[in-house]
Write a structure and sequence with these properties.
Elements (H helix, E strand, L loop, with lengths): L1 E5 L5 H10 L3 E5 L3 H9 L3 E2 L3 H4 L5 E4 L4 H9 L7 H4 L5 E4 L5 H13 L3 E4 L2 E2 L1 H7 L2 E6 L2 H11 L3 E8 L3 H28 L5 H9 L6 H5 L22 H18 L4 H18 L17
The chain binds nicotinamide-adenine-dinucleotide.
The site of nicotinamide-adenine-dinucleotide has 26 residues, from α4 and α7.
Length: 299
Amino acid sequence: MRIAFIGLGNMGAPMATNLIKAGHDVCVFDLSEKAMQPLEDAGASRAKSAEAVTQGADVVISMLPAGAHVKGLYLGNDAAQGLLATMTGNPLIIDASTIAPDDSRRVGAAAAERGFAFVDAPVSGGVAGAVAGTLTFIVGGSEEGFERARPVLEAMGKNIFHAGDTGSGQVAKLCNNMLLGILMSGTAEALALGVENGLDPAVLSEIMKQSSGGNWALNGYNPWPGVMEKAPASNDYQGGFLTDLMAKDLGLAWELALKSKSTVPMGSQARNLFALHAAQGSGGLDFSSIQRLYRRDKE
Ligand code: NAD
């Protein structure tokens, strides 16, 4: 399949590499020249513009930072015409960025007006999952769009879910990440309380893992340095999933809750914790560094 891939950052670059490895004919575009070179070395062709990369494509995939970038790319802005106005043929559009569900719905509706199929397909699994090709894709869109997207997504991921109509992928992703933010901050809180009352964090972790407090953050991503050798906490919180991105996702979940008039007291608490942590200069560290917010010694 001829695949156009737009946005070759931390996630997009390894995802596009896996499409090349699966034998697809991949053409890439990123605003950064530097980001395109490794993909060209891996066997992709490189386009000079977003408009050019979509020419002749069966599938167009975007992996961009936020909603403004996705809307700008497809719908256009003051500086440029959007792709929906210039694309020809019958390509399926897959946007894998994490953005507000309403932004996905807006782009999806504009795509449908032009006769293009669109699915939102945000991912879970982080950079490690993108490199290993084991991402979870949470797809929103028609059944037909989902079935067209599935074989392409299978080259980059392990679990492919259909959450519902356009925008539903984003809703499910935001619910998941809100829960993850709550679990990580709760885990950090419990560990700090135990340590400040004389417990060894590794012993306490093992006890809670085997008890009713066990959860994904504690069991596989322990936020206390040295407890889990492979966790970002044991590598000075480098790599992993950035605090800035967790704060972004919790902000999107908060906006979603405002819109549906839902009460999310735990989610809003987590949003404030991660936003404060980012504001204090930890935005570029893994999100499990929220542990530092609870520590008197600030290791
Ligand atoms: P990133 O900032 O590393 O990469 C974004 C890339 O998009 C950059 O290379 C940038 O130059 C490019 N770009 C921006 N606007 C563009 C445009 N108009 N045309 C072409 N290229 C453009 O971001 P990332 O970490 O790869 O994340 C991408 C998306 O995936 C985000 O929405 C993020 O929330 C989501 N996500 C990230 C992770 C993670 O662990 N990094 C995990 C799950 C989901």
